[in-house]
Amino acid sequence: MSAASRRLGLALAAALAAGACARPDHRAAAVADIRDADLAFAKATAERGVDGWVDFFADSGMEVVPGRNVVGRAAIRTLMAPELGDTAHLLTWSPVTVEASEAGDLGYSVGRWTVVRRGAAAGAAAPLASGSYVTIWRRQGDGTWKVVLDVGNADPAK
């Protein structure tokens, strides 16, 4: 065997070994998990208000609002309690796009939210407010997904 053939054989073996050692791509499973977590987050908030909202945040999670960043579950509870405690209105949302890292431990959801009168028939009344959101999710040590950053903005007034 010539030196060139040996080098080619070694290079091919190294490439195959590197491919065999490559990390698996966990994106597809993580995308499905994040979508499910986002939908569960919306359901818990609709059913339990601020308690449902806060339960989905990581301990050091952040809510970005105009003029400041609100960090930590207690501060987020204080921020959101007035809005989510209003029993006449209902905040709903659903993801439109979900992406995840190759490692499957970090991802985001992007979607649309609306505020409607509670008890109104679906589609019967125009939303009181609507907008878009981006939520960044991180897989926790126990396998659950928690919000580490949430940003929402309202559509322009019509």
What's the domain count?
A: 1
Tell me the major beta sheet: 6 strands, mixed
Mean pLDDT: 87
CATH class bucket: Alpha Beta
Q: State the total count of DSSP E strands.
A: 6
Q: Hey, roughly how much beta strand do the residues contain?
A: 35-45%
Quick take:
By secondary structure, the chain is an alpha+beta fold. The chain has helices at 3-21, 27-48, 50-55, 73-84; strands at residues 57-65, 68-71, 89-100, 106-117, 129-139, 145-154.
Notes on the protein architecture:
The chain has 158 residues and is of the alpha+beta class. It has a single domain, classed as Roll (Nuclear Transport Factor 2, Chain: A). It is built from 4 helices and 6 strands. The model has no long low-confidence stretch (mean pLDDT 87).
What characteristics describe this protein?
158 residues, alpha+beta, Nuclear Transport Factor 2, Chain: A, six-stranded mixed β-sheet, 4 helices, 6 strands, 37% helix
Task: Summarize the SSE layout with pairings.
Elements: H1 3-21, H2 27-48, H3 50-55, E1 57-65, E2 68-71, H4 73-84, E3 89-100, E4 106-117, E5 129-139, E6 145-154
Parallel strand pairs: 1-6
Antiparallel strand pairs: 1-2, 3-4, 4-5, 5-6
